[in-house]
Q: What sequence folds into this?
């Protein structure tokens, strides 16, 4: 790696981190929003002034602008564990008296809060609340994961695009309308760091390291399991070109580490995860009817509520852009395109989640940043895109600080 480019990436990441967190701290002090948020059918009931009164993990004042929605569960797991009495309990749908019930925290994968629980330890010795210590840890883990993802992305494209192209790809990842999720208590930063690093090691033909990172990615988000296919495709390409395949055959079983990791997680958390997903979030695998119903409902609502229209159309545009990037970049980056298509297909066919968070899910598609970096060779496109994306990012970051839904 070129040391000068690496320094520029680190410097840009550091300055971006200060700016985005600083903006999210300062902007709410200048103006407030009109509640509630009517973006989705249910957000108006979750965005009143009293909505967080029963959610202590979203009310701690330290870096409070960096937490909202799912942050509650990551903070709870990192601070107390999965069975936290301060987190809501999910019962069988339409039967609150059922004996079978689980904490909502079980819908979230364990690695991110586990890393947070380690990083928070030094802060617990300070004059900081336990939740505040976990919040600091979550932001640190997210930012460091993002930096790792930027460096891995640069490493994957610099042979083809050169140093400038690698830097463009890495920096454009931070100039997307929902890149704020890289600086809050959400899994995007850690997942991008693990996933992009795994893909980078695949390109370097270090498949065992790539498999280990893919297993960690699977423990961060379910879609990490989709790294299995690029792993095996990498192995097939190496076997095809190898004159001595003995070592490759020894390596082959280790490529199943993501599947093994997923199996271990299923044994530990599978039952409560499925229960909460089905009875609260309405999600599953290949729920095409529910997915179509969800998008139909969203688009119908968009005709009545302007905030829904903005959310729906930017979400659809983001997904379309991500899919186009996978197709356009497939010949040059087949492993990345394969992962990207699966990583889009899984959430976009899982029920209601795809409509709620599509614009956030595209953050993990590496070909999106590569395609934009290619287009940004043209100075007019680079400046227009930077202006457009930054303004949307500012809007999204501002709304997030008030717990409004942005993805």
A:
């Amino acid at each position: 790696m070129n040391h000068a480019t690496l320094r520029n990436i680190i410097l840009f990441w550091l300055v971006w981190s200060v700016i985005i967190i600083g903006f999210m701290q300062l902007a709410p002090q200048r103006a407030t929003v009109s509640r509630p948020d009517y973006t989705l059918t249910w957000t108006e009931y979750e965005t009143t002034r009293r909505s967080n009164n029963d959610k202590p993990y979203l009310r701690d004042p330290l870096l409070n602008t960096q937490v909202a929605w799912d942050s509650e569960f990551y903070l709870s797991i990192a601070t107390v564990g999965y069975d936290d009495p301060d987190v809501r309990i999910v019962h069988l749908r339409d039967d609150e008296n059922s004996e079978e019930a689980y904490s909502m925290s079980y819908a979230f994968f364990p690695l991110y809060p586990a890393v947070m629980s380690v990083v928070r330890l030094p802060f617990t010795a300070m004059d900081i609340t336990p939740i505040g210590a976990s919040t600091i840890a979550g932001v640190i883990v997210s930012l460091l994961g993002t930096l790792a993802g930027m460096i891995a992305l640069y490493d994957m494209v610099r042979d083809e695009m050169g140093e400038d192209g690698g830097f463009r790809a890495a920096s454009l990842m931070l100039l997307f309308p929902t890149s704020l999720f890289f600086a809050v208590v959400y899994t995007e930063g850690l997942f991008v760091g693990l996933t992009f690093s795994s893909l980078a090691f695949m390109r370097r033909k270090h498949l065992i390291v790539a498999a280990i990172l893919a297993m960690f990615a699977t423990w961060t988000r379910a879609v990490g399991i989709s790294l299995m296919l690029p792993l095996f495709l990498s192995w097939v390409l190496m076997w095809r070109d190898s004159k001595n395949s003995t070592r490759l055959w020894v390596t082959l079983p280790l490529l199943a580490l993501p599947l093994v990791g997923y199996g271990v997680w299923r044994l530990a958390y599978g039952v409560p995860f499925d229960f909460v997903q089905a009875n609260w979030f309405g999600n599953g695998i290949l729920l095409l009817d529910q997915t179509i119903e969800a998008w139909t409902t969203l688009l119908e609502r968009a005709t009545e509520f302007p905030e829904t229209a903005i959310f729906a159309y930017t979400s659809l545009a983001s997904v379309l852009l991500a899919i186009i990037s996978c197709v356009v970049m497939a010949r040059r980056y087949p492993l990345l395109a394969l992962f990207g298509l699966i990583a889009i297909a899984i959430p976009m066919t899982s029920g209601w989640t795809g409509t709620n968070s599509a614009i956030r899910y595209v953050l993990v598609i590496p070909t999106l940043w590569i395609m934009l970096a290619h287009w940004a060779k043209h100075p007019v496109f680079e400046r227009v895109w930077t202006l457009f994306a930054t303004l949307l990012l500012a809007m999204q970051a501002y709304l997030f600080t008030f717990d409004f839904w942005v993805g």
User: Anything to note?
Assistant: The first strand starts at residue 89 and ends at 91. The CA atoms of residues 32 and 402 lie 8 Å apart.
